[in-house]
Amino acid sequence: MSEVKKPPSSGAAGGWTRFVTARPRLTLLLALLVTALAVVAGGGVADRLGSGGWEDPGAESTYAARALEREFPHSEPNLLLLVDAKTGTTGVDDPAVAAEAERLATALAAERGVVGVGSYWRAQLPALRSGDGRQALIVARVQGDEKTATAALERMAPRYEGEHGPVRVSLGGPAAVQREVTETIQEDLLRAELIALPVTLVLLVLVFGSAVAALLPLGVGIVAILGTNAVLRGLTEVTDVSVFAQNLTTALGLGLAIDYALFIVRRFREELAAGRDPVAAVGATLRTAGRTVLFSALTVAVSLSAMLFFPMYFLRSFAYAGVAVVLLAAAAALILLPAALVLLGHRVNALDLRRLWRRGRPVRAEAAETGRGWGRTAALVMRRAPVFAVATTVGLLLLGIPFIGVTFGSVDDRQLPKDAPSHVVQEQIRDGFPGSPGGGLTVLAEGAPGPDRLAAYRDRLAALPGVVRVDGPVGSATGSAYASFSVAVEGEAMGPRAQDLVDEVRAVDAGFKTSVTGQAAVLVDAQKAIAGALPWAAALVVLATLLLVFLLTGSLLIPLQAVLLNALSLTAMFGAVVWVFQEGHLSGLLSFTATGDIETTLPVLMFCIAFGLSMDYGVFLISRIKEEYDRTGDHESAVRTGLARTGGLITAAAVILAVVMVAIGTSRVTNTKMLGLGIALAVLMDAMVVRSLLVPAVMKLTGRATWWAPAPLRRLHARFGLSEGESAPPMPEEAERIPVGAGT
To answer: What φ, ψ does residue 683 adopt, rounded to 5°?
Structure first.
């Protein structure tokens, strides 16, 4: 059995260590002050976040939508009042119903910020009356951006929802859906935190045994979350930020803080057990685990920053939140946590709750047993390396097959639970009304081309396959040189035929400037924007990952393995997303409405997050293997010992992060549910399959060539590279020794 020599009781600390540990009480006091300021600065951030951001702000559809809102407020309603005639009336044409509806429409038109009020009773349009004659619509436009419209609706809603004499009124339309999505996410996030925090604390106690050690990662996570909320609050002053980003802040703030704290506290306890005093133990920890945490944070931050290439603020918001929370979690783990460890010293092992069931067995024996178990797993995998490599790879590829049939769509009311009021209203409109109010395509014409040319253009549009009818042209309400056409399409407003029609309508020769918008046009433009930015984002992630892993290892092959194996670990997540959320399997169990498609931006978001977290675990494992290889020069022993030292740690971290993501996945909003459950699956597959089986199998097959690099790259690494290895002077021999396999 390999042995590690016991170091002396004290040692010189490096500059970083001196900076962190010279004034530990002052460091923690300043941290407490900064955290308190972050609480104040981040207060009310949820009220300033938006619920949209899926459209490309530079796209043709966005330009047309803004012009239509300005010139044709009637043509772009975002608020629908569903007026339901009560029993005892003859329907929506009953005089009493019509009178009350007119009163409501007049009152709505007088509201501040509301324009373009119309109704079935004023326009007598069949599309605004249900097929059974019991329901009809009042339509309006609430002006302003999402936050302004939501605030206006909050103010107005109580005056219109509910019973009004012979009618019952419910609110629908995009503005009502956005309002309800925002409220639901905020409520769900609070519930997720109330679930995740106590469960995480219990798991940390099981991992560490000590209640004191278990509280440290939670403290790091809370600091990271509060700090990120302050960052997001500041960003809302200069740009739009999505409300969905708060979910990522909570999940990564807890998850990564726990990962980093687990790694550092575990190494600190190892160093204490080896006989170092607290300051020396912190120094050794920062020279080894601290470097790994720094590299890990950089790789995760790079993966998340790739979303800045995309123009949609929904994706960019996750980059803002993700990069901030990763860097703050790493800073807290590398500055505040070491200061706390210096003050705690051996008391980090206090309040060992595992004594209740261990019945006197020493912690070290238990830890060593766990390490030996992971070492035996690595040895078994390497003995049958070809079998494990092929079986694992094939299994992961098979799990990803459903993603071949992915269909991309956009967000609508079906993101909400079936009993959500705005979802109920939209469902009744879809099922009961002959038209599709708010659906179809809208064409904006510019330049005052004249009635004859507008009529000829309308006829060419009407002749396109899949066009049901073309209404218009309608002149601008401001009297400017604009006209608009409404194009009703066959099937779903965002269905495949509607998406094809977007390009066909744009290709029609009008002889004057036209722009096309509508739900299908927004979706098509978003897909084009993602396709255009995706190569650049992928290149950033891949190249940065290759560079960082090379600087960590000095190997040419390991960075390539890291990228390929990380990508392979995501196949199960993508396959499950399509099988469950697009095709609707388990929709009853998970309580969501399947729409037959996946929101366009979600795969990009999930890839960036899951790839970064996979690299997080990959860096933990590779760095320890590299340390052992540098120490012994034995490739297979390094792989076996590296997995023995980190296998339990990575698995514990993955389970805890999965718990946090599952708590997020309890959300009633489908996209958040998909994000939480999908990332949880990816994290578990990466830790329990890729890191435990595929990595040791592949490293066995590549042998000592794993560590090869050409001479120029070796010189580059010698000058700029870092690794998780001791940089302190060699320790003199001591009689007392501990097993290498010991570890959490």
So the answer is: -65, -45
